[in-house]
């Protein structure tokens, strides 16, 4: 399994960068986790847009879906040019029925719902199996976990306040992409987010092998997020940067 950070900012992208978007690749499967603002421009540094099989959306906030519409337009162009004959598959929750309805643009893009009620029921995209778990955020949002046939597991919190119900879901994963939207001492909970201390504790209690802090703030020094998380978590840790790559061993 290979994961490339395409965008990692919370709220809006800094100059020439993007908000939440991660390219997950395994064998011949190419999947996006979220598709935030600026993602489509950044993605083309790493992959042809026509080669993307599916997009998984954690929730409908703009910093996670802003470029999904234009990614769908690229598929319309690419299918008309004969670059691919495969529609873009979009996996999202349908707790917001109106937003979900707008995702499908048949025959170019087709949306599929995943449901909280089916938490324990993995579904498959290409060579990967996925499961979901609801997070603690002002709108319905789901953490995502991907299992590869090589045995490696990665998880992504999406957006969430610190919530111990996530720990069994995240337990022992090889890579956890966790949001870390604030610094230690700042109260992130009213915004449905976590600070660096909470991200560190989540990584520690979940016993994850690698903790990647992402959904980063537009203030302070990101290195400080690492220093603060490391007081509570002693495994491997980084903060996200555009183009950063993680691969399973
Ligand atoms: Zn967000
Ligand atoms: Zn959000």
Automatic annotation (TrEMBL):
Domain spans labelled Metallo-beta-lactamase: 18-215
InterPro entries found in the cross-reference section: Metallo-B-lactamas
Record keywords: Zinc
Protein name per UniProt: MBL fold metallo-hydrolase
Origin species: Evansella tamaricis
């Amino acid at each position: 399994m290979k994961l490339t950070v395409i965008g990692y900012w919370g709220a809006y992208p800094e100059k020439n960068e993007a908000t939440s978007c991660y390219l997950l690749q395994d064998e011949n499967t190419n999947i996006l986790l979220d598709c935030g603002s600026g993602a489509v421009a950044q993605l083309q540094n790493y992959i042809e847009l026509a080669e993307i099989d599916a997009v998984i959306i954690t929730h409908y906030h703009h910093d996670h879906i802003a470029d999904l519409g234009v990614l769908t337009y690229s598929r319309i162009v690419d299918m008309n040019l004969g670059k691919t004959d495969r529609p873009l598959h979009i996996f999202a929750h349908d707790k917001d029925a109106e937003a979900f309805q707008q995702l499908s643009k048949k025959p170019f893009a087709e949306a599929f719902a995943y449901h909280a009620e089916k938490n324990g029921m993995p579904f498959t995209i290409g060579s990967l199996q996925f499961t979901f778990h609801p997070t603690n955020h002002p709108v319905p949002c789901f953490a995502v976990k991907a299992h590869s046939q090589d045995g490696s597991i990665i998880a992504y919190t999406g957006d969430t306040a610190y919530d111990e119900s996530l720990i069994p879901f995240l337990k022992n994963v090889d890579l956890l992409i966790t949001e870390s939207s604030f610094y230690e001492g700042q109260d992130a909970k009213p915004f449905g987010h976590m600070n660096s201390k909470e991200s560190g504790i989540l990584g520690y209690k979940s016993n994850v092998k690698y903790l990647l802090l992402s959904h980063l703030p537009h203030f302070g020094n990101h290195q400080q997020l690492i220093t603060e998380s490391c007081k509570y978590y002693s495994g491997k840790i980084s903060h996200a940067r555009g183009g950063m790559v993680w691969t399973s061993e």
